[in-house]
Batch of 2 targets.
Target 1
Amino acid sequence: MRRPIILEPEQQSDHAEALLKMIFGLSTNFISLPPDDVDDGINDVLKAIGTFARVDRSGVFQFGENGDKAGRTHEWSSNGAGGRLENVSAESLSWLCGRIRSCEVVHISDVWKLPAESARERDEFRRVGLRSIVAVPIVSGYSVMGFIEFESLHEDKVWSENIISLLKIVGEIFAFALSRKRIAEALKQSESKYKALFEHASEAILLVEGGVFVECNPKGLSMFACTREQIIGRSPIDFSPPTQPDGRDSREELMRKGRLALSGTPQFFEWKHRRYGGTLFDAEISFSRVELGKRVFLQAMVRDVTDRKQAEEKLASTLENLRKAMGGTIEAIVHVVETKDPYTAGHQNRVADLARAIGTEMHLPADTVEGIRMAGVIHDIGKISVPAEILSKPGKLSQKEFELIKDHPQTGYEVLKDVEFPWPIARIILQHHERLDGSGYPQGLKGEDMLLEARIIAVADVIEAIASHRPYRPARGIEAALAEIEQNKGVLYDASVVDACVKLFRERAYRLR
Ligand SMILES: [Fe+2]
């Protein structure tokens, strides 16, 4: 290591020229001192300036992290120097510490003459046999790190301006060196924290420099099923298939994302990776820029999401199976209803298809449309409790018979209300004979009190009923059906539903199946 210049005894003097020479030597040497050599350097300088100023002791005190104590971190003493100040607590030497914190120079030539406000300092100085002291703050940026001091044990001393200037300049040099040392220590600490994180992470962490892997943690080795030698020096491209499932070129995509991350925009993405042996796996990757020491790396954190993907796929297929099972159950219900009431055979399916088409024409979400279709398929399930002879009666129904038929929305609701559909099927069925003006049944709901799905089924139901054959009358045709809903648009039937329905038949060539 390079050490600061230490003046030989014959060079010692209070002379300004010698002082300048010393300061010049100290500062040029200190600037290039490696952080690990700072402590030795400071001790050497304390010796040099202590000898130069002919003091009994020179020292550096630094404030602790919470600032309530100043500890002696560096010291030089001439032969035979007696007792010494150790740790200076803010409480025991509050007057001294307070003045140092206010960036003042503390210059005491005779400790016996200290004023009453500094009685604690006076007792402490006398206890260790101190006669005179001069202390100068060490300031880094806007914070006072501590102080540098000269002590005289054997005589009362008036410290010259030159000596105080020397301490101020040396204090500045020390502040610079100590800050550098603190930064280096903090960096070392954060590097060792990073290393611990790196070694024990539950995700693969890989460092890329110059387009190749330069580091890989143990988790990375097990994830890519390889040894260190098989991955270090290789490109990330070697651990990816040529293209990704969506057709993107792996090389181009990795290079693009790497560039973005290195320029300071972290990247998160899903990726198809390849293990060393060739098997593919699904991963989630985050790319970010890290600086370690003076080197810049692309850090890739990789999480194997194969299990999660498989679970998602399993869940999707379970849902699909459930949907199919539900569809099967509904088909069975439809079959029961239609065996009992052959005249409405196909009615529900035709209503369901028209309602689905209306929902789509209205740009409703696909899931809502699916719910409407499902409700349509079983909307007359309540007819199961109406006697078959009434349902298939060729002539006009009596008032009493009609009342029985009017029960079917409520019956349908009762049958289905406890079934857990992902849609409000039971309520749609309950409301499918309601009318916008409150003239419908069973509740006489008005306007938006009706579910939109029910307003759609209602229109589809009326169209299908008028256009098709009934036991008590022949089919009246689609034009008559459309005339009915257009005449009562906004009165009995929702205007936007009517518009969508009319558009289907007139412009989209929709036909009842
Ligand atoms: Fe009905």
Target 2
Amino acid sequence: MSTAAPDRAMDAAVIAARTREDVVIGNEIVRHRRASRWIHWLVAATFFLALFTGMPIWTPIFGWMSSFFGGLATCRVLHPWFGVAFFVFSLVMFFHWLTDMRILPSERGWLGPKALEYMRFQTDIEDVGKYNGGQKLFFFAVSLGALGLLVTGLLMWFPLSFPVVLRELGFILHDLTFILFAVGIVGHIYLGTAAEPGTFGSMVRGTVTRQWARLHHPGWYREVTGEAARRR
Ligand code: HEM
């Protein structure tokens, strides 16, 4: 059996995903155009570079990580600059996605038990648009966390410019924020890969299948295709 037709549709979708999103091409829907994907991966890359150069500075338990960057002294120089780059890309991502991430009144419950219900497939997701409430909250948490890490990082980078009490507070808040951040990112990676197959492709090729969209984001599916989504 020839697979030429689906392949052509996929190629056309990948090409469209360079500049456009929310368009349907055959069985594919463009979810993230190239600019969005580049911004996301620059945020992710600088996050991990800052994380892995920061952990050996944080505690000797992770001292071995410093050898990947040329030693602890190099990590101390690189870490704040990776941190600044992470903040700059996070700022770009914030303004890039802000319109899509507006939290609707019906999504406020995601701060409470709705997130757990979603993980247990118990919640009605019929109205879920391009991003669900949990993704929107994650987006705002990441943006706030990036700002928090920058401010507390600056307190430690220029210790003599600030009162001791602020500097000490900076240490505690920087560590606390990065630990919460790292835990959140583990959950994010799980949801973006193993938990929901087909999601990772949206950040690589830019596209998802109609079936994926109908299952996870029926409101968005209806919006882009004009069809009624099937109930779960
Ligand atoms: C290897 C690491 C990562 C993987 C595999 C990954 C994967 C993904 C995927 C597949 C999406 C699209 C979800 C969708 O379209 O529904 C996404 C979105 C997003 N990612 Fe990541 N990501 C990673 C790292 C990060 C990091 C480090 C950050 C921030 C510091 C981040 C922030 C975001 C945000 C804010 C969104 C939009 C909201 C959401 O979909 O949750 N990602 N990621």
